[in-house]
Amino acid sequence: MANHSASHAGGAHAHHWEISTYPAIVAVGVLFLVPMAFSAWFVYHSLLLTVLFAGIGTPLVLWGVSGWIGEGMSHKALLPGVAVAGLPVFIISEVFIFLSIFASYWMMRLMADVWPPEGTPAMPFGLPIFMTVVLVTSSVTIHIAEEKQEKGDLAGFRSMLMLTIALGLVFLACTIYEYSHLLGIGFVPGTNAFSTVFYSLTGFHASHVLVGAAVFVAVLIPAFSGKTNLTFTKCAGIYWHFVDLVWFFVVSQVYFW
Fold first, then answer.
1. How far apart are CA 145 and CA 151, in angstroms?
2. How far apart are CA 208 and CA 98, in angstroms?
3. In this predicted structure, what is the pLDDT of residue 51?
4. 3-state secondary structure at position 29
5. Beta bridge partners of 4
6. Residue 9 — very low, low, confident or very high, per pLDDT cuts 50/70/90?
7. Helices (H) and strands (E) in the chain — how many of each?
8. Which secondary structure element, helix H or strand E, spans residue 38, and what is its range?
9. How many C-beta atoms lie closer than 10 Å to residue 132's C-beta?
10. Which helix (H) or strand (E) holds 200?
11. Is the Cα dihedral 128, 132, 133, 138 positive or negative?
12. Are residues 239 and 92 in contact, defined by beta-carbon separation less than 8 angstroms?
């Protein structure tokens, strides 16, 4: 990251946040975490390569996200224009990724003579409802956190942000619990067509929840020393609302259709 100082009348200087290496770190992490890890598992069926690629990609993504946000937190005067305009572009690209997985599921579902395929256990009812309530509540808490930050109530902002993070972790814990149960009874990604789509959709969504929680942690840590940036919080909040919205499609299609 480099700061460029431009001279103005009266000798004043404006500092601009122009260069950062963290986006490149995030991109490399995503490369290892998504296409390489997924290919290793679903195409080459190699547990060793999957663990290796995920083990490299996950720390890189978390490091890149936290470092990138940490840089932004040191620039309170950061203009919101580029961030606010760029975020919808990013979200649209994410929508198309999810849509491609949904489209594959819909084709298999509508063309199948029998659904779900043989070997599919009964999907739980109560757990996904609970997970939905958790995510909806987290959308409310992050909205309240933004309002606290706008009013200058940093203590309230930190409290609501921590609650949002906790709710996100509860959601991930539910996902892990469900996976452990399904894997324990032999329902693995390669069991049938439904299992492949199930683990792809829920796992891809859970990875977004993990990234969102990591973003909030990166926002929270500097907030304890009084460093906050409303633009970053708003962008993180918009991303979180998007992840919550996608979950309604995941839960309705995978669990209740």
1. 10
2. 11
3. 93
4. helix
5. 16
6. very low
7. 8, 2
8. helix 37-42
9. 18
10. helix 193-223
11. positive
12. no
Amino acid making up residue 139: S
Distance of alpha carbon 4 from alpha carbon 21, whole angstroms: 16
Q: Which two tokens stand for residue 5?
A: 């100082």
**Helix H or strand E segment including 177:** helix 154-184
Q: List the end-to-end C-alpha distance of the chain, in Å, as a whole number.
A: 48
Total residues found in the chain within this entry: 257
CB 119 within 8 A of CB 187: yes
Q: Which helix (H) or strand (E) holds 210?
A: helix 193-223
Domain residue extents for the chain = 1-78, 80-257
**Looking at the predicted structure, is the pLDDT value of residue 42 above 70?**
yes
Omega of the bond leading into 121 within 30 degrees of 0 (cis): no
**pLDDT surpassing 80 at residue 187:** yes
Q: What is the pLDDT of residue 107?
A: 87
1-78: in CATH 1.10.287: yes
- In whole numbers, what is the pLDDT of the chain averaged over residues? 84
Q: Quote the CA–CA distance of 88 and 78 in Å, as a whole number.
A: 18
Could you tell me the pLDDT band of residue 3, with boundaries at 50, 70 and 90? Answer: very low
What is the spatial distance between Cα 236 and Cα 159, in angstroms, rounded to a whole number?
A: 16
Helix, strand, coil % (nearest 5) of the chain?
75, 5, 20
CA distance 237 to 216: 9
Q: Look-up: residue for tokens 């070997």? A: 119
Residue in this structure with the two tokens 């906790």, named with its chain if needed? 166
Q: Model pTM?
A: 0.75
Question: What is the topology classification, in CATH, of domain 80-257?
Answer: Four Helix Bundle (Hemerythrin (Met), subunit A) (1.20.120)
